[in-house]
Amino acid sequence: MEDPLAWKLAKRQESISIAEFFEKNRQILGFDSQPRSLITTVKEAVDNALDACEEAEILPDILIFVEQTGRDVITLIVEDNGPGIVRRQIPCVFAKLLYGSRFHAVKQSRGQQGIGISAAVLHSQLTSGRPVRIISKIGKDHPAHYFELVINTKTNEPEILKDEEIEWDRLHGTRVELEMEASYVRGRRQSVYEYLKETAIVNPHARITLVEPDGNEMLFERASEEMPVAAREVLPHPHGIELGTLMKILRYTERKRLAPFLRYSFSKIGLHTAEEICKTAEIDPNTDPRTLGVDDAKKLIKAFKKVKIMAPSTDCLSPIGEELIYRGLRKEHTADYITTTTRTPSVHSGHPFIIEAGIAYGGSLRKDERAKILRFANRVPLLYQQGACAITHTIEKIKWRQYGIDQAQGSLPTGPLVILVHIASTHTPFTSESKEAIADVPEIMNEIGLALKELARRVSAYLSKEKTLTKRREKEVIIKKILPQLATKTAQILERPTPDINPIIAKIMGNVLVKREIHENEKVHQVIIQVQNNTETTQRFTLHETHEHPIYNPSPTPKTTPIASEYNYQWKITLRPQEKKAILYDLQTKPDELQKLPPPIIDGIEKELVTGAKAINQRGA
Amino acid sequence: MQEKDPQSRASLKQVIQTIYEQLEDGTIPNMRLPTRTKKNIEITEGEVWVYGDSESTRSAKTTKGAYQLLKTTHLCDLLINDHLQQNKSSTLREIYYISENWNHAKFNEQPESDRLIEDLEIITGLQREDFHVRPEENGATIFGPLRIKETTKRGERTMHCQEDVGEAGYQIPYNVEKIEFLEHDAQLIIAIETGGMQDRLIENGFDEKYNALLIHLKGQPARSTRRLIKRLNTELQIPVAVFTDSDPWSYRIYASVAYGAIKTAHLSEQMATPQAQFLGVQPTDIIEYNLSTDKLTNQDIKALHNELTDPRFNTPYWDEQIKLQLELGKKAEQQAFAGKGLNYVTDTYLPTRLTEIGMIKR
Q: Which of A168, A292, B74, B152 is deepest in the core (most CB within 10 A)?
């Protein structure tokens, strides 16, 4: 849907004034309200900055400065540390609609139509009457160029009001300053703040700073120093091609014969496949492609579908990756549990796509509210039209109760969770030209469903583990309160010594019990350490004893590591459920030192499962 | 100080000893008790209700069990060291309040402490009186030709239950074991559900005319009342008749006098009087005496149906009476006889019924 619209726009712009065109297409372009105008402008500027940095493999550092300069008038400055723009291209990039390099490429990128930033410039110009001010510098030894530009609304050509060389403290980068009728809102989903926050989540390699009109500064710090893998440009895949596009490339190709044309204009078509397509379409492979008409083009498209063609390659996609989504979510949400996944690439009508998803659960997220949905297409947050989106529809179809998460029939789940879905594709099917909601394409919904169900299973496992642990801790607290009282009270009534309750605690908790008894003698003390596994699984762990003096006659023989002035002994122990073992050794030390012995240390078992010893976990760390 | 006190102390100490030994031994403390539900009720050869073999374990493995064991320990401490050691007593309600200071062992509500005391009775085979624990209200009253001696905290008191008491009769103390029967002329005992009917019989001189001991049950009879009836029946061989309203709840009053109740099945041997006979009011009396009636409520009907499967009513007599009542859909009160004149119940109904069940001969 995207491309034909662009073509339409391109044609129209010749016949009508672009100002008129802009007025008629405000909604599509994202300038239909004052708050949205600002968000759209920020979005276009930030997208450009991120794309530029990515292409130049620079970790982005973006500053967004919003200033209220009048009633309903906002001055917006967006500054990046990107590669800069060469002087002669600056006017066209900012002051000519439909100028851009990404338009013809089949490649995943944020913007695709090249109307973005120049539309914002036009909006600024029409509402404030002020030119856009640009500073750009391409490197240390190059001068910074300062431009003041307006768009000639009759010719769609840039008019340069100022073109100067100035001093700029940055090594390289671009700064855009726009003044426009707009308003800055906060505290709701559709806001500059939220847009930047979500952008920061899916671009964890970026550092984004926002200065709000009241001077409040917000930093979305980068969580990763890793650049995303740059998307590669590829030829279009025959399965995704539309008639108009096919006719266009047929007309403008430099190839003289159809078969080579097919081979070199599309991906995944080889010598053999090209001939088979021609044969199926009943067109001579030697025909000049430029002579083919609509009917031939239709035959070719039919043939594309009949002939077996390899699935499109997916290296033109740039997924964010599980790890980086994890870091992005963790950076912006205080959650107890975060899990993420990146699906393997899939294809919808010839366009490769990858679904990535993440769920953050618990923490400071509200329990009584519906899940917060974060939707992204090619790393761009989708803030509007949540209800119309395939992502939302897929989430609503999943039976979340199966995974221990509340859900009213057919609606979004309720609970402390954030659900993130990212679609990376060379062609994202949107429901409308405003590019805010993804269309219900079955292949895409299926992939989203699979990704989310996988995550939901993990959340469910996490929840049940949490539940058991909470139960255990609760039990432990109570048992640690009641049993000691029971012991002291019974002992007091009977006037007898208070019994040691550790063995019982270990049994009740189903823990591994470590009980060290020392039989004091005059010189040599006998130490017995009993270990018993009260858990239901086999436990493998290491028992450490640290003494100032060496031990004698140990049974079994431990591994010994002298540390500084101390001796560290390690016994590797494996205990089946209910199994008991004993460790014996002799110790020569003064009686008063016996009182100061550190407790035995158990390494390799969760601390909740150990009674009578200090538990550390080096293996898990 | 009572004779039995050292024995009671030893029994309670044994409970603590058991828990202590389990702790020392590394065994998770636990206590086995008969399951105290209707499912685990058996009828002995002596025809009273007792607990069966089904047992449940109270273990510190669970939070609930651990709390119960701790509470039991505190309770034993109170009974051993405050009650028995210092010859003090508390009411059931007082014990509930005393537990305020027991930290984690505090009772959440009085039924909890009441139940735990019953548990201790079961474990030790003693009665709460042995622990110097008494109910909030004293037992009901008895009126009739009987001379007794009661040992009170202030010395022995001897009295005749007709001659030495007012019209309200002699009040049965919570510990019936403190009563000694000295002499009597009683031919029969009539246990009466309502105080109004007891007063009617006293006013009409029924006790004198028939040498009857009139005992007020006060609804579901207290332990002391049931124990006194049992003692009078077994020690003095006086036959017992139970006179109640004609509704399902009254039949249960009779059953608890005769066979015992689920909650106190461990004491049935001491408290149930299986020889006690049901005098009335019978559903058949409703027809025969053409009594004023009320309609059975839904709960009444439900309760009657339950009684049809209750082993205590598993006799042809009760089967016939209950089915008849369900058919009539009606119930009657003892006081319904007043419609026929104030003397009708003592002059006509009771002599007729007592003759029918063979307790007086004409």
A: B74
